[in-house]
Write a structure and sequence with these properties.
Elements (H helix, E strand, L loop, with lengths): L1 E8 L3 H11 L4 E6 L2 H8 L6 E5 L9 H12 L4 E6 L6 H8 L3 E4 L5 H8 L4 E2 L2 H4 L4 E3 L3 H6 L3 E10 L5 E10 L8 H10 L3 H20 L4 E4 L2 H4 L2 H15 L6 E6 L8 H12 L3 E7 L5 H8 L3 E4 L1 H4 L6 H17 L2 E4 L5 H10 L3 E2 L22
Parallel strand pairs: 1-2, 1-3, 2-7, 3-4, 4-5, 9-10, 10-11, 11-12, 12-13, 13-14, 14-15
Antiparallel strand pairs: 1-6, 8-9, 8-15
Helix pairs in contact: 2-3, 2-8, 9-11
Amino acid sequence: MRAKIILIVDDEPIVAESIAEALEGPGRRIILCGDIDAAACVLERVDVSLVLTDVRMSHPFGYEGLDLVRRISAMHGTTGVVVMTGLRDPELGEFARIHGASMLLQKPFDLSRIERLLADCPDLALPPCLEHAASTIVFPDLETVLRSPSLGPVFQPIVRMSDGSIAAAEALTRYRANRPLNDIGMLLDYAARRKRTTDLDLALIAHSLVAGASFASTLPLFVNVHPTTLGEPDRFIPNLVLRAERAGVRLDSLVLEITEHAALPQHASALESLDALRNAGVRFALDDVGSAYSHLSLIERIQPSYLKISQEFGTGFEESRTHTRIVNNIFQLGQDFGLEVILEGVEASSTAEAARRMGIELAQGYYFARPAPLDELPSLAHVAA
């Protein structure tokens, strides 16, 4: 399916919604963003036919809209851009054109000019995040997301291959309320751009501890934490301890997953976080091992109890000689360090069987169970037996 995809960027919701309502029509999808960071997240993932952006948003002395126009010109040279403004600055129009804008409109303006521009904009293939979405989508601000009951975990079991029993579970984030932020990668990106990664991590961990408390009373509960968060020990550690106490979860039942994709902060505070948490009984897992080149130094710094082999290599590894060697090398590395190794991305019985033959004891993936609410976990691992 194809449509004209329109991105409206304005920090005044009433203005943005009024423009969207006037532009709605068959064969159109409209995305509303209230800040430049949200717009950047969308533009990195979605091709758009036309962008309408206010020239000034949160910063009283800046022209953030022109920065966005410049980015769009560099990344999406054929995308039409309309700059909107309530300012009476005779030089602004020239600045907008220099940055790559197709048009500058003074508020209030006649929408017929936008309609004429839209007529020349291309219809684009809808990406998956927009295929089944409403005709107008509001990209929520981060505070709305953090307070939303739609933000919460589902759980995926980590299965013991020898008998099919559940050895642990990983809490995975879901945001069920709004496209396109149900793409968790986009949500994490948005939080990082807003410099709110720690806030998002703390909210997700709190939800996971409450929902996973009964499970964590008997088996390890894995929760994800971004390396950036570990660089704020004065915020992260007291909050983690408090939320675990409130949920009734012992710290020695927690395993914090740290991805190899992102760099661990080099300053001493990150190492202090690791040491303090480890002394309190928290264990660590190094996630996505194999997807980067830093796992040896991270093993030294994090001192994990688990290595999780990236699904990039785990899924169908038995069909590739190269992937088989990578999986085996990481498994042997874990053995040498006395660590438990978890194979991620197991989606077929042939992969599970190849992992068993290699000696891998723990695995995770759709073959065993898709992520689901906690109360469904007890019946999910029978396929591994």
